[in-house]
Amino acid sequence: MRNVVIQCLFYGSLTFGICTALLFICFYHNYVSNSQKETKEPTSVLYPDEKLQQQIIHGSGKTPRLHVRLQRPNKDETNEKRPILNLSKTFNYTDPEAVREFLKYGLNTFISKSLGNERHVPDTRNEMCRKKHYPSRLPTASIIICFYNEEFNALFRTLSSVMMLTPHHILEEIILVDDMSEFDDLKEKLDYHLEIFRGKIKLIRNKKREGLIRTRLIGASRASGDVLVFLDSHCEVNKMWLEPLLYAISKDCKMVVCPLIDVIDYMTLEYQPSPVVRGAFNWYLQFKWDDVFSYEMDGPEGPTSPIRSPVMAGGIFAIKRHYFNELGQYDKDMNFWGGENLELSLRIWMCGGQLFILPCSRVGHVNKQHILNEPEGTRAAIYNNLRLVHVWLDEYKEEFFLRRPSLRSIPYGNISERIELRKRLGCKSFQWYLDTIFPELEAFNRGH
Protein backbone atom coordinates (compact mmCIF):
# COMPACT_ATOMS: atom_id res chain seq x y z
CA MET A 1 0.00 0.00 0.00
CA ARG A 2 2.83 2.34 0.93
CA ASN A 3 4.55 1.71 -2.42
CA VAL A 4 1.33 2.56 -4.28
CA VAL A 5 1.03 5.88 -2.42
CA ILE A 6 4.66 6.74 -3.16
CA GLN A 7 4.18 5.90 -6.84
CA CYS A 8 1.04 8.08 -7.02
CA LEU A 9 2.86 11.02 -5.42
CA PHE A 10 5.84 10.56 -7.73
CA TYR A 11 3.77 10.41 -10.93
CA GLY A 12 1.54 13.27 -9.79
CA SER A 13 4.57 15.51 -9.17
CA LEU A 14 6.10 14.46 -12.47
CA THR A 15 2.88 15.25 -14.38
CA PHE A 16 2.59 18.68 -12.74
CA GLY A 17 6.21 19.47 -13.56
CA ILE A 18 5.83 18.44 -17.20
CA CYS A 19 2.61 20.48 -17.61
CA THR A 20 4.21 23.55 -16.07
CA ALA A 21 7.29 23.20 -18.28
CA LEU A 22 5.18 22.81 -21.43
CA LEU A 23 3.09 25.85 -20.56
CA PHE A 24 6.13 27.99 -20.09
CA ILE A 25 7.92 26.69 -23.17
CA CYS A 26 4.82 27.75 -25.11
CA PHE A 27 4.79 31.14 -23.40
CA TYR A 28 8.53 31.69 -23.83
CA HIS A 29 8.40 30.84 -27.53
CA ASN A 30 5.51 33.26 -27.99
CA TYR A 31 7.28 36.04 -26.10
CA VAL A 32 10.57 35.64 -27.96
CA SER A 33 8.88 35.47 -31.35
CA ASN A 34 6.96 38.65 -30.54
CA SER A 35 10.17 40.35 -29.39
CA GLN A 36 11.90 39.44 -32.64
CA LYS A 37 9.28 40.98 -34.92
CA GLU A 38 10.44 43.78 -37.17
CA THR A 39 10.90 47.02 -35.31
CA LYS A 40 8.66 48.63 -37.91
CA GLU A 41 5.64 47.08 -36.27
CA PRO A 42 4.50 49.33 -33.41
CA THR A 43 3.25 48.20 -30.06
CA SER A 44 -0.47 48.17 -29.38
CA VAL A 45 -2.43 47.72 -26.22
CA LEU A 46 -4.80 44.75 -26.07
CA TYR A 47 -7.41 45.10 -23.38
CA PRO A 48 -8.93 42.06 -21.62
CA ASP A 49 -12.16 42.27 -23.59
CA GLU A 50 -10.22 42.15 -26.84
CA LYS A 51 -8.26 39.10 -25.74
CA LEU A 52 -11.47 37.30 -24.90
CA GLN A 53 -13.12 38.34 -28.13
CA GLN A 54 -10.14 36.97 -30.02
CA GLN A 55 -10.53 33.65 -28.18
CA ILE A 56 -14.22 33.58 -29.08
CA ILE A 57 -13.59 34.35 -32.75
CA HIS A 58 -10.66 32.04 -33.29
CA GLY A 59 -12.46 29.21 -31.56
CA SER A 60 -15.09 28.98 -34.27
CA GLY A 61 -13.07 28.40 -37.38
CA LYS A 62 -11.11 30.69 -39.65
CA THR A 63 -11.91 34.36 -39.56
CA PRO A 64 -10.10 37.32 -41.03
CA ARG A 65 -7.49 38.84 -38.77
CA LEU A 66 -7.70 42.56 -38.18
CA HIS A 67 -4.30 44.06 -38.90
CA VAL A 68 -3.39 47.11 -36.85
CA ARG A 69 -1.98 50.13 -38.68
CA LEU A 70 -0.28 52.57 -36.37
CA GLN A 71 1.76 55.69 -36.93
CA ARG A 72 5.28 55.75 -35.60
CA PRO A 73 5.93 57.98 -32.58
CA ASN A 74 7.53 61.35 -33.20
CA LYS A 75 11.21 61.67 -32.27
CA ASP A 76 10.42 63.87 -29.31
CA GLU A 77 8.02 61.22 -28.02
CA THR A 78 10.70 58.55 -27.86
CA ASN A 79 13.84 60.36 -26.78
CA GLU A 80 13.30 59.49 -23.12
CA LYS A 81 12.67 55.80 -23.65
CA ARG A 82 15.06 53.79 -21.46
CA PRO A 83 15.12 50.04 -20.93
CA ILE A 84 14.79 49.05 -17.28
CA LEU A 85 16.31 45.56 -17.37
CA ASN A 86 17.34 43.12 -20.02
CA LEU A 87 14.91 40.23 -20.51
CA SER A 88 17.59 37.56 -20.14
CA LYS A 89 18.50 38.91 -16.70
CA THR A 90 14.98 39.37 -15.36
CA PHE A 91 13.27 36.04 -15.56
CA ASN A 92 14.31 32.52 -14.62
CA TYR A 93 12.26 30.17 -16.79
CA THR A 94 13.50 27.17 -14.82
CA ASP A 95 12.27 28.51 -11.48
CA PRO A 96 8.88 26.87 -10.68
CA GLU A 97 7.99 29.73 -8.30
CA ALA A 98 8.63 32.35 -11.01
CA VAL A 99 6.47 30.33 -13.42
CA ARG A 100 3.63 30.04 -10.91
CA GLU A 101 3.78 33.76 -10.14
CA PHE A 102 3.62 34.65 -13.82
CA LEU A 103 0.66 32.34 -14.42
CA LYS A 104 -1.03 33.81 -11.35
CA TYR A 105 -0.61 37.51 -12.19
CA GLY A 106 0.15 37.72 -15.93
CA LEU A 107 3.29 39.81 -15.39
CA ASN A 108 6.87 39.44 -14.17
CA THR A 109 6.47 39.64 -10.39
CA PHE A 110 10.24 39.54 -9.80
CA ILE A 111 10.64 42.88 -11.59
CA SER A 112 7.43 44.26 -10.06
CA LYS A 113 8.68 43.55 -6.55
CA SER A 114 12.11 45.00 -7.31
CA LEU A 115 10.49 48.25 -8.54
CA GLY A 116 8.59 48.54 -5.27
CA ASN A 117 5.60 50.74 -4.55
CA GLU A 118 6.56 53.75 -6.65
CA ARG A 119 8.93 54.85 -9.40
CA HIS A 120 9.45 57.69 -11.86
CA VAL A 121 8.48 57.01 -15.48
CA PRO A 122 9.71 58.95 -18.54
CA ASP A 123 7.67 61.94 -19.66
CA THR A 124 6.38 60.66 -23.02
CA ARG A 125 4.39 63.75 -23.98
CA ASN A 126 5.10 65.71 -27.14
CA GLU A 127 7.22 68.82 -26.56
CA MET A 128 4.24 71.03 -27.45
CA CYS A 129 2.23 69.40 -24.64
CA ARG A 130 4.90 70.34 -22.10
CA LYS A 131 4.43 74.02 -22.94
CA LYS A 132 0.68 73.96 -22.33
CA HIS A 133 -0.81 75.59 -19.24
CA TYR A 134 -4.18 74.88 -17.64
CA PRO A 135 -6.38 76.97 -15.35
CA SER A 136 -5.79 76.54 -11.63
CA ARG A 137 -9.54 76.19 -11.14
CA LEU A 138 -10.67 72.92 -12.67
CA PRO A 139 -13.43 70.42 -11.82
CA THR A 140 -12.55 67.94 -9.07
CA ALA A 141 -11.98 64.27 -9.90
CA SER A 142 -12.93 61.01 -8.23
CA ILE A 143 -10.49 58.33 -9.41
CA ILE A 144 -12.15 54.90 -9.44
CA ILE A 145 -9.84 51.88 -9.39
CA CYS A 146 -11.33 48.39 -9.19
CA PHE A 147 -9.19 45.34 -8.56
CA TYR A 148 -9.46 41.57 -8.29
CA ASN A 149 -6.44 39.45 -7.29
CA GLU A 150 -4.06 42.14 -8.51
CA GLU A 151 -0.31 41.87 -7.93
CA PHE A 152 0.30 43.97 -4.82
CA ASN A 153 3.14 46.14 -6.12
CA ALA A 154 1.43 46.83 -9.46
CA LEU A 155 -1.68 47.96 -7.59
CA PHE A 156 0.29 50.14 -5.18
CA ARG A 157 2.30 51.76 -7.99
CA THR A 158 -1.02 52.70 -9.58
CA LEU A 159 -2.11 54.43 -6.38
CA SER A 160 1.28 56.03 -5.72
CA SER A 161 1.57 57.44 -9.22
CA VAL A 162 -1.86 59.06 -8.93
CA MET A 163 -0.98 60.56 -5.54
CA MET A 164 2.45 61.81 -6.71
CA LEU A 165 1.40 63.29 -10.05
CA THR A 166 -2.06 64.71 -9.33
CA PRO A 167 -2.49 68.16 -7.73
CA HIS A 168 -4.38 67.52 -4.50
CA HIS A 169 -6.78 70.43 -4.97
CA ILE A 170 -8.32 68.71 -8.01
CA LEU A 171 -8.10 65.18 -6.56
CA GLU A 172 -11.33 64.77 -4.62
CA GLU A 173 -10.65 61.13 -3.74
CA ILE A 174 -9.45 57.75 -4.92
CA ILE A 175 -12.15 55.12 -4.65
CA LEU A 176 -10.55 51.69 -4.47
CA VAL A 177 -12.98 48.79 -4.89
CA ASP A 178 -11.95 45.21 -4.10
CA ASP A 179 -14.10 42.73 -6.03
CA MET A 180 -13.69 39.90 -3.47
CA SER A 181 -9.96 39.31 -3.99
CA GLU A 182 -8.65 36.01 -2.58
CA PHE A 183 -4.97 36.82 -2.00
CA ASP A 184 -3.80 37.51 1.55
CA ASP A 185 -1.61 40.51 0.71
CA LEU A 186 -4.69 42.37 -0.60
CA LYS A 187 -6.34 42.25 2.81
CA GLU A 188 -4.66 43.37 6.07
CA LYS A 189 -1.36 44.20 4.36
CA LEU A 190 -3.12 46.49 1.90
CA ASP A 191 -5.12 48.15 4.68
CA TYR A 192 -1.88 48.84 6.55
CA HIS A 193 -0.09 50.38 3.56
CA LEU A 194 -3.07 52.55 2.63
CA GLU A 195 -2.67 54.44 5.91
CA ILE A 196 -0.13 56.75 4.24
CA PHE A 197 -2.93 57.97 1.93
CA ARG A 198 -5.44 58.48 4.73
CA GLY A 199 -8.02 61.12 3.87
CA LYS A 200 -7.77 60.62 0.10
CA ILE A 201 -8.63 56.94 -0.37
CA LYS A 202 -11.95 55.21 0.18
CA LEU A 203 -11.61 51.42 0.24
CA ILE A 204 -14.74 49.43 -0.57
CA ARG A 205 -14.81 45.64 -0.37
CA ASN A 206 -17.57 43.82 -2.24
CA LYS A 207 -19.47 41.19 -0.27
CA LYS A 208 -19.64 38.98 -3.38
CA ARG A 209 -17.86 38.82 -6.75
CA GLU A 210 -19.53 41.35 -9.04
CA GLY A 211 -17.21 41.62 -12.05
CA LEU A 212 -15.60 44.78 -13.40
CA ILE A 213 -18.75 46.44 -14.78
CA ARG A 214 -20.88 46.27 -11.64
CA THR A 215 -17.85 46.96 -9.43
CA ARG A 216 -17.24 50.19 -11.31
CA LEU A 217 -20.88 51.12 -10.78
CA ILE A 218 -20.42 50.52 -7.05
CA GLY A 219 -17.40 52.83 -7.06
CA ALA A 220 -19.20 55.51 -9.06
CA SER A 221 -22.15 55.44 -6.65
CA ARG A 222 -19.81 56.46 -3.81
CA ALA A 223 -18.07 59.26 -5.72
CA SER A 224 -18.47 62.93 -4.87
CA GLY A 225 -16.10 64.60 -7.38
CA ASP A 226 -17.32 66.56 -10.40
CA VAL A 227 -15.67 64.10 -12.81
CA LEU A 228 -15.35 60.33 -12.67
CA VAL A 229 -11.99 59.00 -13.86
CA PHE A 230 -11.79 55.23 -14.31
CA LEU A 231 -8.37 53.56 -14.15
CA ASP A 232 -7.27 49.94 -14.29
CA SER A 233 -5.41 48.54 -11.28
CA HIS A 234 -2.13 48.03 -13.19
CA CYS A 235 -1.45 51.55 -14.51
CA GLU A 236 1.04 54.32 -13.90
CA VAL A 237 -0.01 57.86 -14.72
CA ASN A 238 2.37 60.35 -16.29
CA LYS A 239 3.12 64.03 -15.69
CA MET A 240 0.17 66.44 -16.06
CA TRP A 241 -2.08 63.49 -16.91
CA LEU A 242 -5.29 64.72 -15.30
CA GLU A 243 -5.34 68.44 -16.12
CA PRO A 244 -5.99 68.00 -19.89
CA LEU A 245 -8.90 65.62 -19.18
CA LEU A 246 -10.55 67.93 -16.66
CA TYR A 247 -10.02 71.03 -18.80
CA ALA A 248 -11.69 69.41 -21.84
CA ILE A 249 -14.71 68.37 -19.73
CA SER A 250 -14.92 71.85 -18.16
CA LYS A 251 -15.46 73.29 -21.65
CA ASP A 252 -18.06 70.69 -22.69
CA CYS A 253 -19.89 68.62 -20.08
CA LYS A 254 -20.93 66.05 -22.71
CA MET A 255 -17.37 65.34 -23.78
CA VAL A 256 -15.89 62.01 -22.67
CA VAL A 257 -12.11 61.91 -22.84
CA CYS A 258 -9.39 59.27 -22.73
CA PRO A 259 -5.65 59.63 -22.23
CA LEU A 260 -3.24 58.25 -24.79
CA ILE A 261 -2.33 54.86 -23.36
CA ASP A 262 1.36 54.06 -23.15
CA VAL A 263 2.53 50.46 -22.84
CA ILE A 264 4.14 48.93 -19.76
CA ASP A 265 5.75 45.69 -20.92
CA TYR A 266 4.45 42.72 -18.94
CA MET A 267 7.88 41.07 -18.80
CA THR A 268 10.39 43.93 -18.36
CA LEU A 269 7.88 46.45 -16.96
CA GLU A 270 9.59 49.01 -19.18
CA TYR A 271 7.41 52.07 -19.75
CA GLN A 272 7.13 52.57 -23.53
CA PRO A 273 5.57 55.54 -25.38
CA SER A 274 2.70 54.84 -27.75
CA PRO A 275 2.03 56.61 -31.05
CA VAL A 276 -1.06 58.75 -31.47
CA VAL A 277 -3.94 56.42 -32.35
CA ARG A 278 -7.73 56.18 -32.14
CA GLY A 279 -10.06 53.33 -31.19
CA ALA A 280 -11.86 51.28 -33.84
CA PHE A 281 -13.61 47.93 -34.24
CA ASN A 282 -14.89 45.49 -36.85
CA TRP A 283 -18.13 43.55 -37.29
CA TYR A 284 -16.89 40.86 -34.92
CA LEU A 285 -16.91 43.64 -32.31
CA GLN A 286 -13.16 43.32 -31.89
CA PHE A 287 -11.52 46.48 -30.58
CA LYS A 288 -8.29 47.58 -32.25
CA TRP A 289 -6.13 50.68 -32.42
CA ASP A 290 -6.17 52.42 -35.81
CA ASP A 291 -4.50 55.27 -37.68
CA VAL A 292 -5.25 58.88 -36.94
CA PHE A 293 -5.96 60.87 -40.09
CA SER A 294 -3.13 63.27 -40.83
CA TYR A 295 -5.50 66.22 -41.24
CA GLU A 296 -6.52 65.84 -37.59
CA MET A 297 -3.02 66.90 -36.58
CA ASP A 298 -2.47 69.55 -39.26
CA GLY A 299 -4.08 72.39 -37.31
CA PRO A 300 -2.41 74.95 -35.04
CA GLU A 301 -2.33 72.47 -32.15
CA GLY A 302 -0.50 69.91 -34.30
CA PRO A 303 0.22 66.61 -32.52
CA THR A 304 -1.45 67.92 -29.35
CA SER A 305 -4.89 68.13 -30.99
CA PRO A 306 -7.72 66.08 -29.42
CA ILE A 307 -8.40 63.00 -31.55
CA ARG A 308 -11.99 62.06 -32.32
CA SER A 309 -12.30 58.34 -31.55
CA PRO A 310 -15.16 56.08 -32.73
CA VAL A 311 -14.75 53.94 -29.58
CA MET A 312 -12.72 53.85 -26.39
CA ALA A 313 -10.44 51.02 -25.30
CA GLY A 314 -12.41 50.66 -22.10
CA GLY A 315 -10.34 50.76 -18.97
CA ILE A 316 -9.23 54.38 -18.75
CA PHE A 317 -11.46 57.41 -19.36
CA ALA A 318 -12.98 60.50 -17.72
CA ILE A 319 -16.61 61.61 -17.77
CA LYS A 320 -18.66 64.23 -15.93
CA ARG A 321 -20.33 62.46 -13.01
CA HIS A 322 -23.80 63.91 -13.67
CA TYR A 323 -23.48 63.15 -17.39
CA PHE A 324 -22.50 59.54 -16.62
CA ASN A 325 -25.71 59.17 -14.63
CA GLU A 326 -27.83 60.99 -17.22
CA LEU A 327 -26.41 58.79 -19.99
CA GLY A 328 -27.41 55.59 -18.19
CA GLN A 329 -24.06 54.65 -16.60
CA TYR A 330 -23.03 51.11 -17.61
CA ASP A 331 -25.51 48.38 -18.53
CA LYS A 332 -25.67 46.82 -15.06
CA ASP A 333 -26.99 43.55 -16.51
CA MET A 334 -23.76 42.95 -18.41
CA ASN A 335 -21.54 40.37 -16.71
CA PHE A 336 -17.93 40.67 -15.54
CA TRP A 337 -16.29 42.59 -18.41
CA GLY A 338 -16.12 42.64 -22.20
CA GLY A 339 -18.08 44.72 -24.70
CA GLU A 340 -18.96 47.47 -22.20
CA ASN A 341 -16.42 49.82 -23.81
CA LEU A 342 -18.05 49.53 -27.25
CA GLU A 343 -21.57 49.82 -25.81
CA LEU A 344 -20.74 52.98 -23.87
CA SER A 345 -18.88 54.47 -26.86
CA LEU A 346 -21.83 53.95 -29.22
CA ARG A 347 -24.17 55.42 -26.61
CA ILE A 348 -22.00 58.50 -26.17
CA TRP A 349 -21.91 59.29 -29.88
CA MET A 350 -25.46 58.25 -30.78
CA CYS A 351 -27.04 60.06 -27.82
CA GLY A 352 -25.50 63.52 -28.19
CA GLY A 353 -22.04 63.24 -26.62
CA GLN A 354 -18.49 63.24 -27.96
CA LEU A 355 -15.53 60.92 -27.39
CA PHE A 356 -11.94 62.10 -27.75
CA ILE A 357 -8.41 60.87 -27.02
CA LEU A 358 -6.14 63.61 -25.66
CA PRO A 359 -2.49 63.10 -26.68
CA CYS A 360 -1.28 65.47 -23.93
CA SER A 361 -2.61 63.10 -21.26
CA ARG A 362 -0.53 59.93 -20.93
CA VAL A 363 -1.18 56.87 -18.77
CA GLY A 364 0.86 53.66 -18.85
CA HIS A 365 -0.94 50.30 -18.77
CA VAL A 366 0.40 46.77 -18.26
CA ASN A 367 -0.80 44.51 -21.05
CA LYS A 368 -1.08 41.42 -18.87
CA GLN A 369 -0.63 37.99 -20.41
CA HIS A 370 -3.03 35.27 -19.29
CA ILE A 371 -2.16 31.90 -20.80
CA LEU A 372 -5.02 29.93 -19.31
CA ASN A 373 -8.50 30.37 -20.81
CA GLU A 374 -11.32 31.67 -18.65
CA PRO A 375 -14.57 30.08 -19.88
CA GLU A 376 -16.66 32.23 -17.56
CA GLY A 377 -15.14 35.40 -19.02
CA THR A 378 -15.64 34.15 -22.57
CA ARG A 379 -19.32 33.50 -21.90
CA ALA A 380 -19.68 36.95 -20.35
CA ALA A 381 -18.11 38.66 -23.39
CA ILE A 382 -20.53 36.86 -25.74
CA TYR A 383 -23.52 37.72 -23.53
CA ASN A 384 -22.48 41.38 -23.28
CA ASN A 385 -21.85 41.74 -27.00
CA LEU A 386 -25.27 40.29 -27.77
CA ARG A 387 -26.91 42.89 -25.52
CA LEU A 388 -25.00 45.60 -27.40
CA VAL A 389 -25.97 44.16 -30.79
CA HIS A 390 -29.71 43.97 -30.02
CA VAL A 391 -29.94 47.42 -28.47
CA TRP A 392 -27.66 49.59 -30.64
CA LEU A 393 -26.88 48.09 -34.06
CA ASP A 394 -30.40 48.26 -35.56
CA GLU A 395 -30.52 46.43 -38.90
CA TYR A 396 -26.73 46.21 -38.92
CA LYS A 397 -26.87 43.45 -36.34
CA GLU A 398 -27.11 41.18 -39.39
CA GLU A 399 -23.49 42.10 -40.19
CA PHE A 400 -22.51 40.66 -36.83
CA PHE A 401 -24.64 37.51 -37.14
CA LEU A 402 -23.45 36.95 -40.71
CA ARG A 403 -20.02 36.41 -39.19
CA ARG A 404 -21.21 34.72 -35.98
CA PRO A 405 -24.36 32.77 -36.98
CA SER A 406 -23.98 30.38 -34.05
CA LEU A 407 -24.78 33.25 -31.64
CA ARG A 408 -28.26 34.00 -33.02
CA SER A 409 -30.02 31.68 -30.59
CA ILE A 410 -27.97 32.46 -27.46
CA PRO A 411 -29.95 34.26 -24.71
CA TYR A 412 -28.90 37.79 -23.73
CA GLY A 413 -31.33 38.68 -20.94
CA ASN A 414 -33.96 41.41 -20.74
CA ILE A 415 -32.97 44.53 -22.70
CA SER A 416 -36.27 46.44 -22.39
CA GLU A 417 -34.76 48.92 -19.90
CA ARG A 418 -31.87 49.74 -22.25
CA ILE A 419 -34.18 50.13 -25.24
CA GLU A 420 -36.32 52.50 -23.18
CA LEU A 421 -33.18 54.43 -22.21
CA ARG A 422 -32.30 54.83 -25.89
CA LYS A 423 -35.77 56.24 -26.61
CA ARG A 424 -35.68 58.57 -23.60
CA LEU A 425 -32.31 60.01 -24.60
CA GLY A 426 -33.49 60.55 -28.18
CA CYS A 427 -30.52 58.69 -29.60
CA LYS A 428 -29.71 58.64 -33.30
CA SER A 429 -29.59 55.51 -35.46
CA PHE A 430 -26.58 53.28 -36.02
CA GLN A 431 -26.78 54.37 -39.67
CA TRP A 432 -26.10 57.92 -38.48
CA TYR A 433 -23.11 56.64 -36.50
CA LEU A 434 -21.71 54.91 -39.59
CA ASP A 435 -22.26 57.95 -41.79
CA THR A 436 -21.00 60.57 -39.35
CA ILE A 437 -18.59 59.03 -36.84
CA PHE A 438 -17.12 55.87 -38.34
CA PRO A 439 -17.71 55.74 -42.11
CA GLU A 440 -14.45 53.77 -42.39
CA LEU A 441 -16.02 50.71 -40.72
CA GLU A 442 -16.81 48.96 -44.02
CA ALA A 443 -13.35 49.65 -45.43
CA PHE A 444 -11.86 48.76 -42.09
CA ASN A 445 -13.41 45.30 -42.38
CA ARG A 446 -12.52 44.83 -46.04
CA GLY A 447 -8.98 46.15 -45.75
CA HIS A 448 -7.76 44.01 -42.86
UniProtKB/TrEMBL annotation:
It comes from the Eukaryota. Keywords: Disulfide bond, Glycoprotein, Manganese, Membrane, Signal-anchor, Transmembrane, Transmembrane helix. Its main location: membrane. The keyword Transmembrane helix applies. GO terms for biological process: spermatid development. Its cofactor is Mn(2+). It is found in: Endomembrane system. The chain crosses the membrane at residues 9-31. It holds the Pfam family Glycos_transf_2. This is Inactive polypeptide N-acetylgalactosaminyltransferase-like protein 5 isoform X1. It comes from Hipposideros armiger (Great Himalayan leaf-nosed bat).
